[in-house]
Amino acid sequence: MVRNIVVLGGNSHPALVESVCNMLGLPPCNRILTKFSSGESRCEIQDSVRGKDVFIIQTGLGGNGSRLNDHFMDLCIMISACKTGSARRVTAVLPLFPYSRQPDLPYKKAGAPLFKAGSESGKKDYTFESVPATPAPGIPQSDGLGNANDITNRLLKTSLTNGAGAMSPVKQSNGDAYFGVNGVNGVNGVNATRHLGSYTTHDYENVSHVHAFQAKPGYKQWVAQAGTLVANLLTCAGADHVITMDLHDPQVQGFFDVPVDNLYGRPLLKQYIRQHIPNYKDAVIISPDAGGAKRATAIADSMGVQFALIHKERRPTKITDRQNASMMLVGDVANRVCILIDDLADTGNTITRAAKLLKKEGATKIYALLTHGVFSGDAINRIQASAIDKVVVTNSVPQHEHKALLGSKLDVLDISPIFAEAIRRVHHGESISVLFNHE
Amino acid sequence: MSAEMANEIKLISGRSHPELSDKIAKRLGIEVARTISLNYSNQETSFTVGESVRDEDVFIVQSTQTGDVNEGLMELLIMISACRTASARRITAVIPNFPYARQDKKDKSRAPISARLVANMLQTAGANHVITVDLHASQIQGFFSVPVDNLYAEPSFLRYIRENFNPEDCVIVSPDAGGAKRATSIADHLNTAFALIHKERPRPNVVGRMVLVGNVEDKVAILVDDMADTCGTLVKAAAVLKENGAKSVLALVTHGILSGNAIETLNGSVLSALIVTNTVPLGDKVERCPKLRVIDISPTIAEAIRRTHNGESVSYLFTHAPV
Question: How far is CA A259 from the centre of its chain?
Fold first, then answer.
């Protein structure tokens, strides 16, 4: 029994809240957290928090019916309510930090966008210096000299006065659009739909809007990064302390002016490898992209296991096998068990593609160990159909639905002991660094 | 480009109410900036900017979509923050219907003052200025340390009444004590009678007993309020007015949130018409409810944007509605 501590749960992960409360030996704080019919969140905290040490557990879950922005606003409102309710200290516990991983480039269905896509769209934009290119496969097609209107439009664009002119042929001229421009409108149309319709989006209402979007000529479109904003909003709501796990970018910690404890899922993953993977010493630990190499090598080194890396080929290649054209394995996996390590799987695209490559390179069995298994969109189906033999995730987001769908293919590791212990230690002012290394 | 091209109005539209943004843009004679918001499959909102906002005067229009308030709010915050990162000179959040405006006080222990939280969040994201319409409580302006222009739908309402009714036949009715000020102001301008309905509200979204104070016999009773949410209050008030001998009852409301079963409630009520402004997207509600009529508020907002941009006074708009 811990005194003077209040654990308040959001709606995103009731099972974790219950389990953490059980471990701490206290009941979760009574609260009403629903929505008014207008869509505004309604929050009432029914137990006193005056002078208490409040921990609010809300994970950054989204997808498959769950509303991430609702959960985040709920969290801010709860923090604010506790603050105005004279809580001594409010700690936001976010097992999965929302908006921690956002791609810099517009999201494509193919998961994390490749550099190639970006440079392509950059090239396709009509800029101030643009000269009409010689039409050839793979070379951007000029606006075409089909009729006088086009020329007028182009002149308008070059003087940068107005970008409203028709510019779709310029925009989407990758290699195979070459044939689309001069008259074969059918091909062009199909191509445009494929190219522009490939956002992973839930924005059903504005599909036409999405398709119509184009940056101003000469301006390279960019995607807003919300990480700093989310950090600032939490502090602005009144969070005095943040506890999270396996931040995609450790730099996010620096966005905060309040202390941030970034716990690691690594010890759990290592334990799993030791206990459940036979002959793990002979296995190979794989990082599915260069960004995760550090995470994967940390595990490989401490366990004395070999390491390999999948590298995303960024030079423009002309390989027709689109799935694996851009991926390259560095290291040897033939006749070995492979353990893919990553911090987060969202659409599951990176790990399933990596698994395909590994299988092709002769891997015998493929495990995927992830801290956060968000599995939004069609991730579950993709994993079901993939070469991955076993997916291991923590319950930083609720996993029972995924478990029901994936069955024995999915193993779930429980993080509630780590969070319960972190909460206990933070409350008593003890060091939590022991949690970083515990085996 | 040339010097006079620098620092123009950039109008950015959120997803909640593109029709309103289009109308404002049309009125201002500019185009809505090329940006797009999407939700990833994990429900995170992404905002893509397709044109430069460097050193421009940015106005971001975002209303609240009924049932989707938090989604719109997060999108607005991300848009503001993005424009700040992109070196906009000034960022004005144009929020016709301020979200969480009703959660503006600590009415019981540990109740959140969410309106203040929203105000703080907007400022944290980087808003330099806020333009809104008919705040539920004008004290919300005090939650901000940046300027807040609270526009009124009242001039538009006055015109509507003058154009459609003989003010002498009307009586302006406030459906609750809180809205008395708003209603008396309209009654004074039209020089008409005024009445008030006193109500007991046991729980939010639930309406209790109602008592009429004033005389509405053989008059056109015009209910005036700032928002119509589930419409329970309005419909009950209308019934009370009818019982007290009103010739007909209509309602003038700024924000037509119309959540839950509002449309069914309205269709089955004695209200002859509900007139709202288009601060909140109405979607297909106009088709579903023949009693619903819409006053376009975009000229007022557009004019406020123009005046703010040019550094002119906006107080003219408190008494006059641009045509």
Answer: 23
CA dihedral over B69, B33, A233, B140, signed as positive or negative: negative
CATH fold of A5-103+225-263 reads Rossmann fold (3.40.50)
Fold of the domain spanning A266-413: Rossmann fold (3.40.50)
Q: Find the Cα–Cα–Cα–Cα dihedral B168, B170, B171, B174, rounded to 10°.
A: -140
Look up the ipTM and state it.
0.92
Chain A residues touching B47 at Cβ < 8 A: 223-224, 226
Dihedral angle sign, alpha carbons of residues B117, B119, B120, B125: positive
pTM for the model: 0.84
H/E run at residue A317: none
Residues of B in contact with A45 (CB under 8 A): 110
Minimal CA separation from A418 to chain B, in Å: 25
CA distance A28 to A32: 12
Question: Would the CB atoms of A376 and B113 count as touching at under 8 Å?
Answer: no
pLDDT tens for the 323 residues of chain B, in order: 444 556 899 999 999 999 999 999 999 999 999 999 888 888 889 899 999 999 999 999 999 988 889 999 999 999 999 999 999 999 999 999 999 999 999 988 899 999 999 999 999 999 999 999 999 998 999 999 999 999 999 999 999 999 999 999 999 999 988 889 999 999 999 999 999 998 776 676 676 678 899 999 999 999 999 999 999 889 999 999 999 999 999 999 999 999 999 999 999 999 999 999 999 999 899 999 999 999 999 999 999 999 999 999 999 999 999 98
Chain A residues 356-375 with a CB less than 8 Å from chain B = 374
- Least CA distance to A206: which residue of chain B? B15
**Would the CB atoms of B74 and A69 count as touching at under 8 Å?**
yes
Q: How far apart are CA A338 and CA A285, in angstroms?
A: 6
Q: Where in chain A is the domain with CATH 3.40.50.2020?
A: 5-103+225-263, 266-413
* Nearest-CB residue to B110 (from A85, A107, A213): A85
Inter-chain Cβ pairs, chain A and chain B, closer than 8 A: 204
Report the alpha-carbon distance of residue A134 to residue A145 in Å, rounded: 13
Cα distance from A363 to chain B (closest Cα, Å)? 31
Contact check, Cβ <8 Å, B230/A37: yes
Contact A232 B52 (CB under 8 A): no
Looking at the complex, report in whole angstroms how far the Cα of residue B193 sits from the nearest Cα belonging to chain A.
Answer: 33
